[in-house]
TrEMBL record:
The keyword Methyltransferase applies. It comes from Stenotrophomonas pictorum JCM 9942. It catalyses: cytidine(1402) in 16S rRNA + S-adenosyl-L-methionine = 2'-O-methylcytidine(1402) in 16S rRNA + S-adenosyl-L-homocysteine + H(+). Keywords: Cytoplasm, Methyltransferase, rRNA processing, S-adenosyl-L-methionine, Transferase. The gene is rsmI. The keyword S-adenosyl-L-methionine applies. Residues 7-207 form the Tetrapyrrole methylase domain. This is Ribosomal RNA small subunit methyltransferase I. Its EC number is 2.1.1.198. Catalyzes the 2'-O-methylation of the ribose of cytidine 1402 (C1402) in 16S rRNA.
């Protein structure tokens, strides 16, 4: 595919089940001049399954800034190209935004080829409110930074969506219990569209217990969804507890609770001793 009006196609690929690669996605991948891939070996295996043979260009977090202008130069020369990630929709917790930004700045047409996205697939089966949701991607790896991020989200009313890995799922759930409260409704979607797909629901304490009790529930790739606080009063309390936790690091508990209550509008009794 080489025309004066070249296009950069952002192509979603399967998150597990290879049958989820759409006919349009297959056609685009067959006809572009080359494919920018997060992991060329992984993408090569996907293409081989569909009998597609195309030059692959490595584009990942470590080289995207440098590669973006080279790819844009090819687009300006009339070559249409595609960008894919290892699984799902590119740019969603994956590389690609620098390339897309550079292409758009250069006046290149950027066109989506929609398909699988783990976050949206998980929301579709979670049974949690989905009219508003906040996608947070992966939480920080270190515990202190992770808890700080969660505390900033404690008063959020929208459903929260996180990605998590097998070696941190238990720690992250424990931190969510500590910050959001044991009774907050949540859903864990694991290995979506794959052979061992599971979707667990309950409150955060119950989900943590299930994951701790069953080693199989600590394997694979996870989407964790947590329901937001339910009303204005709950939101004030959640924000008050977040503020209290930070202030209590530097002030006596009674002073921290008083200030947190004044700033958040939450009842002081609901904060003190948390």
């Amino acid at each position: 595919m080489s025309t004066a009006a070249a296009t950069l196609y952002v192509v979603a690929t399967p998150i597990g089940n290879l049958a989820d690669l759409s006919p349009r996605a297959q056609e685009v991948l067959r006809t572009v001049a080359a494919i920018c891939a997060e992991d060329t070996r992984h993408t090569g295996q996907l293409l081989s399954h569909f009998g597609i043979s195309k030059p692959l260009v490595a584009l990942h977090d470590h080289n995207e800034e440098a590669m973006a202008q080279r790819v844009v130069a090819r687009l300006q020369g009339g070559e249409s190209l595609a960008v894919v990630s290892d699984a799902g929709t590119p740019l969603v917790s994956d590389p690609g935004f620098r390339l897309v930004r550079a292409a758009r700045a250069a006046g290149i047409k950027v066109s989506p080829v929609p398909g699988a996205c783990a976050a949206i697939a998980a929301l579709s089966v979670a049974g949690l409110p989905s009219d508003r949701f906040l996608f947070e991607g992966f939480l920080p790896a270190k515990g202190a930074a992770r808890r700080d991020r969660l505390q900033r989200l404690a008063g959020e009313t929208a459903t929260l969506v996180f990605y998590e890995s097998s070696h941190r799922i238990e720690e992250s759930l424990a931190d969510m219990v500590a910050v959001f409260g044991a009774e907050r409704p949540a859903v864990i979607a694991r290995e979506l569209t794959k052979l061992f797909e599971t979707v667990l629901d309950g409150d955060l304490a119950d989900l943590l217990a299930q994951v701790q009790a069953d080693p199989n529930q600590r394997k694979g790739e996870f989407v964790v969804m947590v329901q937001g606080v339910g009303d204005d009063e709950a939101g004030k309390i959640a924000e008050g507890r977040r503020l209290y936790a930070k202030l209590n690091e530097h002030l006596p508990p009674s002073t921290a609770a008083k200030l947190a209550a004044e700033l958040s509008g939450a009842p002081r009794k609901a904060l003190y001793g948390q």
